[in-house]
Design goal:
Radius of gyration of chain A: 13 Å
Low-confidence stretches of chain A: none
Number of helices of chain A: 0
Largest interface: A-B, 26 and 26 residues
Number of strands of chain B: 11
Radius of gyration of chain B: 13 Å
Number of strands of chain A: 11
Structural class of chain B: mainly beta
Helix content of chain A: under 10%
Oligomer: heterodimer
Strand content of chain B: over 45%
Number of helices of chain B: 0
Low-confidence stretches of chain B: none
Helix content of chain B: under 10%
Order of helices and strands of chain A: EEEEEEEEEEE
Mean pLDDT of chain B: 91
Strand content of chain A: over 45%
Distance between the termini of chain B: 35 Å
Shape of chain B: globular
Largest sheet of chain A: 6 strands, mixed
Mean pLDDT of chain A: 93
């Protein structure tokens, strides 16, 4: 069974809007939470990552929010652009050499 | 330009055949990984290697084999024992001290004829 549950499966947002993708996990040993962005026919690219000692991390228009007590983390894409249209994966790992457990992915479509 | 090169981009296999997917990196990364991606599912780890001449099974290793004879190369063989090989295969790498993939190749799509 999937150790990281990701929602929604897909979302459509207008240009300039906010895209929000949520992930939840059960394993409290997870301590590394990356997000990957994947365009069709390409491999994923590491977008941003967070560790549980911080509640939020921002890089440009992308922000990860982390709620340790709720065992949830989310990706916010501010001022969404058509070029952000892609599939986004959350993931989690237990330690420096822990295997990544991926969510099922969210397909984001940003309309002009 | 550093990166990961996977070849071929598309591959077709007949029933009962073994096929080998190539993965080469010029990032000087120690660790390399193979993932399988199916529609509606996240990536699943097939094999990984932290160092030359050593590799470990991931979550779905059955029907696959790998070798790591050179730091820059990590080929994956899909054997006839893999009953459902049609998928998108992704190779990745990470540098020393990082156990999670930092760079991915652009994948090989394997289909059964």
């Amino acid at each position: 069974q999937q150790q990281v549950k990701q929602s929604p499966q897909s979302l459509i947002v207008q240009k300039g809007g906010i895209s929000i993708i949520n992930c939840a996990y059960e394993n409290t040993a997870f301590d590394y939470f990356p997000w990957y962005q994947q365009f069709p026919g390409k491999g994923p690219a590491l977008l941003i990552a967070i560790r549980p000692d911080v509640s939020e991390k921002k890089e440009g228009r992308f922000t990860i929010s982390f709620n340790k007590s709720a065992k949830q983390f989310s990706l916010h894409i501010m001022d969404s652009q058509p070029g952000d249209s892609a599939t986004y994966f959350c993931a989690a790992a237990t330690d420096s050499w822990g295997k990544l457990q991926f969510g099922a992915g969210t397909q984001v479509v940003v309309t002009p | 330009d550093g990166g990961i090169t996977q070849s071929p981009k598309y591959l077709f296999r007949k029933e009962g055949q073994n096929v080998t997917l190539s993965c080469e990196q010029n990032l000087n990364h120690d660790a390399m990984y193979w993932y399988r991606q199916d529609p509606g599912q996240g990536l699943r780890l097939i094999y990984y290697s932290q160092i030359v001449n050593d590799f470990q099974k991931g979550d779905i290793a059955e029907g696959y084999s790998v070798s790591r004879e050179k730091k820059e190369s990590f080929p994956l063989t899909v054997t006839s024992a893999q009953k459902n090989p049609t998928a998108f295969y992704l190779c990745a790498s990470s540098d020393e001290g990082r156990g999670q993939p930092q760079h991915f190749g652009d994948g090989t799509r394997l289909s059964i004829l």
